[in-house]
């Protein structure tokens, strides 16, 4: 049986995003980058809800993302993903997803 490892960025009040969906509180620095690279080297599949997948897919396929860190960008674009959704019909752009039964 495989492990499920959760990686969530959550503020002290227990939320990931603000009232308007903003995540401007989140700081990305060298320490977080190194942690994330170590983490991504330990996994081969990602699980997302539809909303998070749409946010991630709309960013990681952009030229801005590819100019930042090729190692992270390639990982985010190429790693197998399962998206839990009742409404998502197809992948966004070139970011592939694996189909799951609707629930």
**Number of H- or I-type helical stretches:** 4
Strand order of the largest sheet: 1-2
Category from helices, strands and their pairing:
alpha+beta
**What proportion of the residues form beta strands (DSSP E)?**
5-15%
Low-confidence stretches: none
Q: Tell me the overall shape.
A: globular
- For the record, give the distance between the C-alpha atoms at the N and C termini, rounded to a whole number: 22 Å
* Overall mean pLDDT: 84
- How many DSSP-defined strands? 2
Percent of residues in helices = 25-40%
Major sheet: 2 strands, parallel
Instruction: Write down the Rg.
Output: 14 Å
Strand and helix map with partners:
Blueprint (H helix, E strand, L loop, with lengths): L29 H11 L4 E5 H11 L2 H6 L1 H9 L1 E5 L19
How does this structure look, described?
With 103 residues, the protein is α+β, with helices and mostly antiparallel strands. It is built from four helices and two strands. It has helices at 30-40, 50-60, 63-68, 70-78; strands at 45-49, 80-84. The longest helix is centred in the middle third of the chain and has 11 residues, at 30-40. The radius of gyration is 14 Å and the shape is globular. The mean pLDDT is 84.
């Amino acid at each position: 049986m495989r492990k499920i490892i959760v990686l969530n960025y959550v503020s002290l009040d227990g939320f990931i995003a603000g009232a308007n969906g903003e995540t401007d509180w989140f700081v990305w620095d060298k320490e977080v980058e190194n942690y994330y690279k170590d983490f991504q080297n330990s996994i081969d599949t990602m699980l997302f809800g539809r909303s998070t997948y749409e946010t991630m897919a709309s960013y990681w396929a952009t030229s801005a993302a590819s100019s930042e860190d090729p190692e992270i960008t390639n990982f985010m674009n190429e790693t197998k993903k399962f998206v839990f959704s009742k409404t998502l019909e197809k992948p966004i752009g070139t970011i592939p997803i694996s189909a799951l039964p609707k629930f």
